[in-house]
Amino acid sequence: MPIKIQRLIAILSVVLFLAKLTAWYLTHSVAIFTDALESTVNVITGFIGLYSVMLAAKPRDLNHPYGHGKVEFISAAIEGSLIFIAGVFIIYEAIGQLIEPTPLHELDYGILITGVAGLINFFAGTYAIQQGKKHKSATLEAAGKHLRVDAYSTFAIIAGLVLLLITGWQWLDSAVALIFALVIIVTGYRVVRKSLAGIMDEADEHLLEQVIDFIQNNRRPQWIDMHNMRVIQYGNVMHVDAHMTLPWYYRVADGEKEIHLLEEMIGKHFGNKIEIFVHIDACAPYSCKLCALPDCPVRQETFRQQTLWSSENVWVDSKHGKAVET
Q1: What is the pLDDT of residue 200?
Q2: Are 58 and 177 within 8 A, CB to CB?
């Protein structure tokens, strides 16, 4: 599904770029040129994004044991960089227009063409963001945000050009372009920042909290302890590493059953492909105070309380039982 959506975005970017280029040719407006220039970024990143989504969908292999999902972060970084560069170039053109104004022509047709393109970008961007979140695709989300920002800047540019038509103040053309060049630069920075965080495996604290809260709320009595947990998202694959303490007398098959159950629960709730690596620890005597298993045949001490799992204690590489006072 992400591949199909990204393919449509790439084709749409070419069509809208040609439409905006036509509007700029008709009007000679630097503000419309701003919009058209940003669309060139849409075209480039649309096809880069298509390639990255296709590559990210490939299964893991010997050379890429964790899959190909990180390519989406690289694609988003390229897109953000191009957005940033486009913003800088627009500032250069707008200042040049202020210094040596160029007569404007047929603004009514330019506004109409640009407005239709903006509406299409807005709806396409909204859909891409929704599908990007649904399929955990950084590329689709980045593309959708870029299309939405493009649409917002288009609407504001149209408002400025309408005001120009009413007042005749030609400097408004450059002023509007300068304002939205700054918006474009900030957007580019944010896209690059998020993509670099993914490339550097920066912890996604929000995702970690969501996973831990879900496991805590659906916890089984025999899951005595959970610690040293790490969660990271590569493309549409969620990787979960953790240590889990189970009753010491469980057989290997029993431990495997609990791991598969955990994997199935997380996958169904988050809608992800899951890769889970769980190290099984055997419970120790001090674990009895934390173990809520009602029919444990080898219990040595009375159950007192479970350790409530949260992002503050589950990521720590230490069992929690020793922290309970005797």
Answers
A1: 55
A2: no
Mark 259-270 as b/e (b = at least 16 C-beta within 10 Å): beebeeebeeeb
Amino acid making up residue 9: I
In degrees, rounded to 5, the angle at the alpha carbon of residue 31 between the alpha carbons of residues 30 and 33 is 60
Residue 223 zone, left/alpha/beta (φ > 0; ψ -120 to 50; rest):
beta
Whether residue 162 has pLDDT greater than 90: no
Task: Name the token pair of 233.
Answer: 């998202």
Burial class (CB in 10 A: 0-12, 13-18, 19+), 155: middle
Residues in the chain: 326
Q: Is-contact 125 144, C-beta < 8 A?
A: yes
Q: Which amino acid is at 72?
A: E
* Amino acid in the structure at residue 1: M
Assess contact for 131 and 5: CB atoms under 8 A: yes
Check if the beta carbon of residue 79 is closer than 8 Å to that of residue 191. yes
- What integer best gives the mean pLDDT of the chain? 78
Contacts of 274 (CB under 8 A, 6+ apart): 237, 238, 240, 263, 266, 267
pLDDT by residue (tens digit) across 13-61?
888 888 888 888 888 777 777 777 767 766 776 776 666 666 655 666 6
Residue 226: strand, helix, or coil: strand
What is the Cα–Cα distance from 235 to 68, expressed in whole angstroms?
A: 8
Gap between the Cα atoms of 170 and 304, Å rounded: 76
Question: 132 vs 126, which has greater pLDDT?
Answer: 126
The residue assigned the tokens 């104004």 is 101
Please tell me the distance from the alpha carbon of residue 326 to that of residue 323, in angstroms, as a whole number.
Answer: 9
What tens digit of pLDDT does each residue of 264-305 get? 888 888 766 777 889 999 988 888 888 888 888 888 888 888
Query: pLDDT tens digits for 163-189?
Result: 877 887 777 777 877 887 787 788 778
Of all helices (H) and strands (E), which one includes residue 279? strand 273-282
Q: What are phi and psi of 122, to 5 degrees?
A: -60, -50
